[in-house]
Amino acid sequence: MNSKKKTTKHQAILRSDADIWEERLRKQSTVGGAHNRVNQNYELGIPIAEGEYASPTECVLMCGFLVFHAKHADDDVRQFARRVLDVVFAAAAEKGFRRTDLLETMMSKREPSPRMRVLAGQATAAIGSNLAFARVVARAGVIAGGKQ
Q: What is the top-level taxon of the source organism (predicted)?
């Protein structure tokens, strides 16, 4: 007997885009032992430039700076950062983080504070590992390393 479950047409329709996306990522990352390489790549953090990594918390804080304070940055860069904040805040809220409004308000002020960094850390911790954070950001059409 075949032990694999078959998906009915109705079940396939009901699956969300996120489920399909996650399944594709899982398949791609496990081909030829790539799964371990993917996890090892993200142990260093989120790639932000060639050979440069940042923690998810630092990425959120950098995006907040770009959105609220980098007045000379290109509009495309600011919109890119805004999309990252939106998906990160939504994912963190989905996982139980309830202070996204407070964090965004603090980020909009000119003065960074230790509490703002703590809140950003709590938001990214709610999402999970560095790899989970990168996957959340990728859902917004943003690829680690700054490519779209």
A: Bacteria
Residues spanned by the domain of 123: 17-138
Q: Domain for residue 126, yes or no?
A: yes
Tokens encoding 12: 């396939």
> H/E element holding 54?
strand 52-54
In a domain, 146, yes or no: no
Position 12, amino acid: A
Q: Is 12 exposed, middle or buried (0-12, 13-18, 19+ CB in 10 A)?
A: exposed
Q: Greatest CA span in the chain, whole angstroms?
A: 65
Query: Could you tell me if residue 73 is inside a domain?
Result: yes
pLDDT in tens, the chain (148 residues): 444 445 444 444 444 444 444 554 555 444 444 444 445 567 778 887 788 889 999 999 999 999 999 989 998 889 989 999 999 999 999 999 999 999 999 999 978 899 999 999 999 999 999 999 999 988 877 654 544 4
